[in-house]
Protein 1
Amino acid sequence: MPEDILTGQKSLFETGVQTVLRGQENRIRKISIQNGNLVTNARSEGSGICARVYLKGAYGFASTAEYSAEAAAKTIKAATENAKYLDKFNSEKKNAYPMIANSYVTSPRMIIDYEQKKLVDICKEVDAYIEKNYTDLLSRAVSYDEVTMEKIIVTSDAADGHVAYPRCRIIVDLGMKSRDGQPVELFKMFFGCGHAGEYFADLNPIYEGIDELYKNLKDKANGVYAEAGLKTVILHPDVAGMIAHEAVGHTVEADLVQGGSVAGANLGKQVASELVSIVDFAHTALGKDAPFPVYLDDEGVVAKDAVLVENGILKGFMHDRESALFYGAEPCGNARGYEFSDEPLIRMRNTAVLPGKDKLEDMIASVDDGYYLLGTGNGQADLTGEFMFGITCGYEIKNGKIGRAILDTTVSGIAFDMLKTVDMVSDSMIWWAGMCGKKQMMPVSTGGPAIKCKITIGGR
Amino acid sequence: MADLQKVSEIIFDYIKTKGDIKADFSINETETNEITMKDGKFTLFRTLFDNDIAIKVIKDNKKAATSINKFDKETIEKAIDEVIASAEAGSPDECFDIAPGLEPKEFFGKALTPDIEKLMNRTLELSEDIAARHKKILLIEMFAKYVRGRSIFINTNGTRDDSEYGYYEVAVEFAGNDGTASTGIAGSFLRFDNLDERLIDLGSIERDLQDAENSLNPIKISDKFEGDVILTPSCAAQMIGGTLMNSVSDYVLISKTSLWLDKLGEQVASPLLTVRNKPWDERIVVHEVHTADGFRAEDYDLIEKGVLKSFAASLYAANKCKVKPAPCSGFYLVVDAGETPYDDMVKSVKRGLIVGSVSAGAPGANGEISGVAKNAFYVENGEIKGAVIETMISGNLFDMLKNIKAISKEQTCDGMMVMPSLLVGDVTIQGN
């Protein structure tokens, strides 16, 4: 990231408007080895400056790929002109946001950029392990992706700062033929909030994960279709985290609440079992660094945790400064933009169901006839709270014991109905590193314990 | 505006100093103007200036790629040094290649001169039309934009393409809402090249709004049955796209997980179905000029009367799998219209659904899919009985293509694809 040339531009901010100037660089590294072929070996760097200006209820925004004091001045001017242009159409003028105390925020972790050879070699090593140990696969793929962001934020009436968001992931995807000759696949992700040298210096944890993935794939190759209907299930933490993000998280983003989300009428009401609490953590979760720590958002709000559901009661929404003013709430630093040219939107950070007191083995033993759902590829939910998740890995539970594996299926339900059926929550906690696609892409993390509930399973 | 010619010379001259290297690169400059409207009011106006250089090199049969968004000599030369170092770290593979040299050519799109004031007025008019025609629609958010770009593509075999393009887009997010109940979020998207018509009359916007309004007070299906499903054009695009990704794309060809790997020239779908990939169709607003490998992009058929005619392979995948590279890189799907009027299609359904989209996990190579039917309506004895909620459909994408019973006469075009409705039989429908 170039030096901070933006702070000196504050004198160009017009009075009577609220301005944020942001310099940002995104670096992407991608490597993919497919069946031993290095098919992707790519890097990209994108950086620039944007300015956002708020005037009486509307925003002007401008961005440029140049990074210089002159470009910053032009960007501020263009954004201010855009705000004034929109003001002509604005018949209902709004007040300015309350000021936020000025401070300077930095994140403790900055970005370390490795040469591509080191990253390629890591992937080759992982691929060689799979090729050597598992010879009956139909397909194998090892992918490395790294999305790092670094931002300098300068505001007229909030906090300033210089923050970085490094993250690297390795995704292993294995495939084999099922007993009836159809291709079946499973994938597993390994990740860390930091750089490859820190998280992938020792590959043994990845090898152990691959061994487990292969076992699950072998089981799935002999798997059966799930029986359709409302079933008692144990959701693995990866799946529970998806519920926290998709089924609850999006419905309590204040912009979607204003759009008519089911959460709007349920603030302060029981929306889940008393065993369920959900928090969108800023940077520290349960005494440890959160997987995607956010210290300062793109409006200059110092980030802190947003409590969404506490003991089953819907306690609050996630806000930007505009929605916080509308709802009389305090913003917690949820406004983020993905690229330098993106305006900040209300986004989740590290959204998790909090762990309970049950042991996973006791939870499984308590199910007479149901499923243990371990893996999900993606999920969606809408304003009504109706959600679905694809299930890529799961097992039957019969008389308290794990049974046959199941083939790919989908689970669905209404979030606030399903969460009321939760009657056990494990004492474990596992995080997942995902990308959220609400207008712009955005790295997020989700997490949770295993939970026992009733859910609708799709089947043949 | 930047001097793209000068930038291209910096790149070309520096690559030439690096010895025996195959390379191609594109230089792009774009300006975007975007308006956001919430609750019937303009809330954000963005002006974005961006640059992009994408460089691909092959050295000693090792390939790497990079992209940057700076046009200065120092940054460009550093990026070239790094991408060559990346390639050297790779693995040699004789299947990596670039297209042969072609005669230089220039391409010009239609909407090269924007009218932002008129775009503002058309956007405002759309919000007023929605308010007037659809009293039970809550307009959540609307984005309207104009994008103008210039691009140069060059490869070391002598190809040079210069292109200029411009287009408008509108995306509308809304929900059915009668003050007490709300439907799920719905949307409509459109790409277009002029502002001559009211936006509500274009693409599927009017129909999508009607469907959302009609989705209030849904009914529940309580049983599970095998039935007919009418896939609306946007849902048909979702299903056909999912099938193609799992059958003809690079990933499944190279991994050999495609179930169509040895099906070229064979019947893989109903004889009613013809799927063409047509970047140069006049209804497609932004044309693909060249493939990712540097061949001039051309229209081609993927499936003709149910017979698989081509894979969508890149040059690398084609060399790897000993098939022909596809004549274009993107998907600009044009599905031929059928002979059945849409209303007759609905009347023919004894028991089933009309489905606007399927909220489902990404299907795997075996094509199995199950998901929640969204913007969906229950049909019994040829009559639409009402919207449904908490209803799932399950099936196999490859079987669905074989089980197409009718294709509508009517097609919908959103500027990026042209699609009719499809009537598919034997789909598992499961209520709650």
Protein 2
Amino acid sequence: MNKFSPTPTDRLLKRCLPFWRNCLATFLALVFLSSTSAIAIDARALEYQVKGACLVKFGMFVEWPAATQNSSGKSSFVIGILGDDPFGKSFDEAVAKEKVNGRQVLVKRGRSAAELLDCQIVFISYSELERVSAALAIFSTNGVLTVSDAPTFARNGGMVGFFKEATKDGIKVRFEINTEIAGQSGLKVSSKLLQVGRVVTSGKPDHG
Amino acid sequence: MSVLCATTGLKPLHAAESTGSTSPTNVSNVMELSLDQLLDVNVDKVYGASKYEQKVSQAPASVSLVMRDEIQKQGYRTLADVLRGVNGVYVSDDRNYSYIGMRGFNRPGDYNSRVLMLVNGHRINDNVYGQALVGTEGLLDVGVIERVEVVRGPSSSIYGNNAFFGVVNVITRRGRDLNGTEITGELGGNDTFKSSLSYGKQFESGLEVMLSGSAYTSGGERSIYFPEFDSPAENNGVAWKSDEDEVYNFFGSAAYSGFTLSGGVNWRDKTIPTASFETEFNDGGEKTTDSRAYLDLKYDREVTETVTFVGHVAYDYSWYEGDYPYGVGAGRVLNKDEAFGEWASADWQVNWRVADRHTIVVGGDYRENITIQQENFDADPFAEYLDDNRSGREMGLFAQAELSLLTNLVLNAGGRFDHYSTFGNTVNPRVGLIYTPFAATAFKALYGSAYRAPNAYELYYNYPGQSKANPDLKPEEIKTYELVWEQGLPANLRFSLAGYYYEIENLTSQNVDPGDGLLVFKNTETANARGVEFSLEARYDSGLMVRLSCAVQRTEDELTQTELSNSPREMAKLNVIAPLWEDKLFAGIDLQYYSAVDTVSLTRGDDIFNVNATLTSRPIGKNLEISASLYNLFDSTDGFSASSEHINSLGSQLNTMPRGGRSFRLKLTYRF
């Protein structure tokens, strides 16, 4: 009945197991090494992929004042990230093919507002929110569109604040936009952006 | 139970076809979307942990997701196959049913009553055994599955009964996911054939329809060798042609304007080679037939911008019939064991989003057990041993709040009250703190309790001279403590680490009453489990996916201070999907290792090692897909512990259950 007995293969297998484990370890090491040069971004960072893409789109629906250094005369369209970077390096790769009104999109990171004055849009990270008011003042006089993740950003001196909304289809990225603050910096927001965003004014939410 | 069906609304990405709805999307794809489309993208989310969709990192539990794409490229044949690939989960089978193990617990003889299974939020565990079946005997054909969420740890605070060690929530494909007709044909080892036909569409009127049916037959392994039965009186331990399997599944859904009607039915007939319940070995006549069905009407409505209402009414049945041959020749008697359960249920749930930061969920459910019937009789000459008819009801109320204490600190707290006509009341809380100091980092500290109500089989099954009922059984109770760390790393790596400690009381087990020598279920055992689970996952634009996971766990029966049976101390899994040629040819490797387990007969099994490999190809466009799989590549048959019912007419007890040997499958899928 040895014909039906599983033992020979099993014994063989058990002898081979250490070998397979080593193969596995080698294979994994190779995969991880090769992965360091890969281009894509973490699958679960989808939220920031979407927000990043939104930043580029904002560039198409906002008109910057000609008087500032951010006007269309300059060759590239710069998106700044102030503080900790939630988008990751892949954001640079992603925007490499993108153009806003014919201008190449670039990403610039900085730890202070002064470093990012040549940006058209600045995303203000959570890490900076405690000292955001000084930065906002600097950006506002330089015609920079300020964007953040903070829930009440657009109602407290910022221009565009992302938030998330649970719909019956799932959780979507949304944004609030404060046209008053944007207007004070000379920025003109197109009606398209006002259609898809939620317009708010300083101090209180407005569901219009 | 309610569901918010998975939606991406991600038409352009879906057209790329290579990924499921919440699977990875590369940046360049996202950049191609319009602003409107961007605002319609769903971020990664999970439904099962909190009864509404939320990001995996915000869920008050350790959660794994398996998408349809992975199911196809790994050649998974059943939901049991899918679960085998999930970190920390192990699935045994006894050549009849499949049994889910989690966190070191896979009690021999437990028909998955300690794991809650949901299909689109509808409870699948039945009202006789509390069982949820996941092998070929399961309600769903794997072809209708869009994604599977595995939530580890207790969720009785929202789901009530059965959500003891975890929740398996299956989301099915919708009309728009199919968008046409799909025909599949499969051919496999051991004379296995399967075919399916599915149709799905979302019409301009808003009506969305999905229908799918499948048929499966398998001759099974022609001969299976059981070393424990190796004697001349037992055909030298070889069961001939006793592994046949025949399955029919149907599932469908129709959605229109807030209403969704969905339902499924399956029928399955399986020959049993193991001579369980002291039957004659190699008789060929031992078999079971199972059927499970439900019809569920859901109403889903946004009451205001921040308040949503979901309600369900449903009808379910489950049916089981077993043929058990005793004696040989003229003295051969076919004993029949039957169970029929039938129930109607209703539930409601309100989600309230407060100040864009907090979520409050309240809900309730009610179940009327119309019929709970268990029968046992000899067919010819007729002799009845058991005819037990019951009915009963159960109801629950729950509330849960997700409060953003700080921008990066969320408190998730909730509790549920349940009333049963059988044992009375139980209350179960869950509290979780979720701290996300950085976008890619989440820490979770979780505490919860859960219960499993005694089922009708444990309460009422009695067989003259063998076993007796115990209507005084109490629910099993578990208290759990867990820490989870989820971290996104550079180079598309994502890792998670979970450590847990479980304390279980009133564990129900079957023992002999010394007073009368009859088997009876009692709440005797106290047990604990502790362990660590680790996983590292990488996904790339090219389609390459690598996931390595390991679990180390220890369980203990506190009375005897011994390890529980069927509890592997170590598990390791490697899951790779690699593109071999553009997006036309993919290889899937699914590798699992489990350290040896103690068996019910107090022996120790052998290490279990399984490798499956699948090649998937779309050689001519997107319409035709060919896949070829090899299962159990190294033909290793070491298995998990057999349960104590696997004892034949001569009193020989199986120690471990030999797994099926090497086999193959060829599958063709055509879409139009």
Protein 3
Amino acid sequence: MNLLLQLLPEQATEYAKQVDALYLFILAVSAIFTVLFIGLLVGFTLRYRRRSNDEKPQPPHEHYTLEILGGGFLLALLMVMFFWGAKIYFKAQRPPPDAMEVLVTGKQWMWKLQHPSGKKEINTLHVPIGKAVRLSMTSEDVIHSFFIPAFRVKNDVLPGRYTQVWFKPEKEGTYHLFCAEYCGNEHSRMIGYVRVLSQEAYDRWTANLGDVNESPVQAGTRLFAELGCIACHRPDAGALGPHLENVFGHEVGLSDGTTVVADENYLRESILNPQAKLVAGFAPIMPTFQGTVNEEQLGQLIAYIKSLSTP
Amino acid sequence: MSNAPATTHAAGKHYLNERITVSSWLLTLDHKRIAILYLVSLIAFFLIGGLAALVFRLELMTPEADVLRSETYNKFFTTHGIVMIFFFLIPSIPAVLGNFLVPVMIGARDFAFPKINLASWYVFMAGGVLALIATIAGGVESGWTFYTPYSTMYANSNVILAVCGAFIAGFSSIMTGLNFIVTIHKMRAPGLTWFRLPLFIWAMYATALVILLGTPVVAITLVMIFVERLFGFGIFDPALGGDPVLFQHLFWFYSHPAVYIMILPAMGVVSEIISCFSKRRLYGYKVIAFSSLAIAVIGFFVWGHHMFVSSQSTFAGLTFSFLTFFVAVPTALKMLNWIMTLKNGSVSLASPMLYAFGFLGLFVIGGLTGLFLSTLATDIHLHDTYFVVAHFHYVMVGGGVMGFLGGLHFWWPKMTGKTYPEGWAIFAAIVIFIGFNLTFFPQFQLGVHGMPRRYHVYPEEFQVLHIASSTGAMVLGFGYVVMAAYLLWSLKFGKVAGANPWAARGLEWETSSPPPTHNFHETPVVRHPVYAYEFASETSDEPDTSSEKGHV
């Protein structure tokens, strides 16, 4: 494969084609401006070259028509780029609600991945073709960045919070997965592959579970009992903590009178630092689980709480 | 003396030979000597930063690790970044050409605060020496961007020393910026109104504003790294209750405007050169002057475009993308005005003009590739790839360094009193231009195809383009060596330049070369608009008789 001859890298999603159309538009505009500019530079230099040191060129007149027209035209062109880019960006920010969710934990220097089936893998992500996949990502240490060039997607992976990336692969094959944010000594080895499989192949791959697998929701359910969460977070009236059914994605009233939408980052904070945003009507008695649960277990607990909500 | 030929003083005493002891240099309050001190120090830093780049470009010739271990590779690119940004590019034009020229161009004897000016060099050297100690005594591998929590909690190297170096060097920028602003306001020669100022002065003024407003913020940010790393204050590390993205906001709030600290001065230099070698007042003088200020102001509101994938909100992403496009307009207007100056001019391709054309050719690419990165959808793909590396090298090296070299060639006869061999200068300009493009153009293609930056080893398919880039780096290095050789040669063997070898306009050309210690024997009185090529000098009403003047 000779990269020099290829204008664009492989397009494995519909989204990639949309990004590339915009890329080609900006490329065309840039090429036209470059040729125009260099052309004028060379043209004027030749046409007005100094033939004798006695030449006395006229100073330019002070009028700004050219500047105003040129600047206005340019700004209009730039706004086309802005709105076009923003439109596509909105798509990247909004995964479809039925997207399959894979948990991603980055650490120096590997990617740990867990599928809804519970199947875990490292540095290689298997996904079925034609199905939207949303990655819920966090890091155990420094900032990493999850980058799949063939899908044109990238997002930083941060310690202490969740970020996301989503894509819908349209082409079977194996694609590069890179860490794009410098993360230390072996940064350039924090790479892997995304393998887009047919649905049957993906199901076959999933069925081959091995022995210890439980899905994130199952693991979360188990942890919820093992850690004693269930003792307080009960449905009955005397419960010491709020019942967690239909909490995810909904507004929660807080003890200081404000409200917050319970998203992944709120649930995470409430597990690690329960008093930060206390639910109205409850005493600040929950202990922190910082240090008790690791990143993967945290993701599983949240997966369980999410499973209690009907969208 | 209004129009007395300044050359009569050339044979006598000037700032270089008035006193020649070591202490007369190290304790000098003369802005011109301080400029030379900066020039010598900056060349040393440029050499260190450049050699680091050559070593890792050599490493990148093959996909595997050959020359360096990963940790060492990371230390090399970090050194390259820290040295080139903080200790070469940011001070380059302001501290060397600005220090030398601002007082002379406005007809003053020195800056408003000569002692602060000298102190700035000592402070700069203190910062530089700390950074070098950090590099030699084990190195730094946090990247020049010091992203947290890597730099504060995970890096096993001399981050603290390097941070102290950058922190201290920031104060020298502030001192220089302060001097520029006060001096330009208060010490202009009689008759030199704001709109008679050379555009280089406007550019220096805009740069000084950015320095004064931005540098304190990065200083505070670096202190925060210091206290988190050393004392465990939880500011950026989530494990301590901090926010790692906060660092990026603070860092880019300075470091994006810092790009304009590097490029605005180069734009000022290019304006002077194009006017001189077109023998003509610049087209749209006021537009160029105000666009410098516009870039300085807008530049403070676009930092978030470094963070489109950092988890900042969708709304923040939209806002920063939108605002970023507005920087493109004043920049493009400058390009338009420069090109329109050539039209109907008397264009000569002397070596400074070739460097200025090099600036234009590279900066047009650097600027336009910025559009891919201000557009949200395309930036998500290109962010943190070689596309970004190529883009900012086209702007900061293609723009900043070409501007610096153009200015150095333009004012070299003024600074040293000698001329360099023109043929070699043209040769070096062409070699540098070709070497630069060969180094960095392939990197755009690498980035589009997904090659992430700061990778020590990489997938095989990228190798062809990496070999092209590394070859270019050697050509570029060769160009710089040729240039250094003939400039040094000219100090001893160069022809005597005379007061105004380029038949240029501007007060700096009305005094002898090199200028006397106090620049002018009498305070000049400016009688004409700026770049008035129709008159023989700024201070007389005689018409131009340029054919009698020497011209290369």
